[in-house]
Amino acid sequence: MDGTLRADLVLEGGGVKGTALVGAVEALAAAGYGFPRVAGTSAGAIVGALVAAGMPPARLREVMAELDYRRFARRRGLARLPVLGPLGAVLRHGGIHRGEELVRWLGGLLAEQGVETFGDLRADDAGSGLPREQRHRLVVVAADVSRNRLVRLPWDYRTHFGRDPDRQRVVDAVRASMAIPFFYRPVRLRHRGGGAATLVDGGLLSNFPVALFDRADGQRPRWPTFGVKLSEREPGGLAPSPVRGPLALSGALLATMLSAHDARHLDDPDVLARTMFVDASGVSTLDFDLAPDDAEGLRQRGEDAATRFLARWDHEAYLAAHRPDAAAAREPGEA
What we know:
The protein is α/β, with parallel strands linked by helices. 37% of the residues lie in helices and 16% in strands. It has helices spanning 19-30, 43-52, 57-66, 84-93, 100-112, 157-161, 170-177, 245-262, 269-273, 292-312, 315-322, 324-328; strands at residues 5-6, 8-11, 33-34, 38-41, 95-97, 138-144, 149-153, 182-184, 187-190, 196-201, 220-221, 225-229, 275-277, 332-333. A hairpin with a 5-residue loop joins strand 9 (187-190) and strand 10. Helix 1 (19-30) runs parallel beside helix 2, helix 2 packs antiparallel against helix 7 and helix 5 (100-112) crosses helix 7 (170-177). The longest helix has 21 residues, at 292-312.
């Protein structure tokens, strides 16, 4: 995805709604954008990993069009006890599903692009405002509920867990980020100073960290960061999403919590100016029975939202309004 234009991406999570992110990526790539860095949470981490690995938009669309979401919700070993089995898995392991199917699926797709570890996603650039240990093309957001803090992988592997970030598998970080509470089992790691860490869906602390790549050194951003959010700006005007059964209720509760947590950021004019809002209403986060036509509809909504956003985007106007000091800087740096 080596476009003439550049933009870092921050992709919101949203379960099966993540199909809409693919449409947004397609529209941006068609407009000539390449993506030096991508950050994502949950479903945003899945799509973000494939984008950062260099998967072409056409292949990304093909992969998502062929995806049967039900493969990620199979209850192996729990079929005999349709109620007690899942309940026992939650009580014993913290979640119903192991997430092994997603690891196999995503790991295979990353291997197609020659990517396994974060070392394969190194982005050493002398013009970056980030320290060298944070120069990767992908950042995956998870939540460490044992210490109630956001975890940015691979950035925090060494400082929090005493691990070499370049040797950690990308798919393991994504698996931690999409550990929806009670649905997928959390990922356990050891803290650097001792004690167990419990990693779950990063949206519990921030589902939309759009400022993750912002420079802090006062230099002029050479390219922008675009955010893709899976909701309209005004939630009161959206059609209700279906809530059928305990799993759908869990997804709805989580989505409500995530929306409330990040809502304050959406009052920031800087965030609004660089975010494309995709209307993903009418689809539940855990709707693993999503029909192909509905999935295509979501993808199209993402594409349309990005197209509308680009029609009004002006990087220089954005800098003048929201980064006046950086806009006047003579020496350009990296976004």
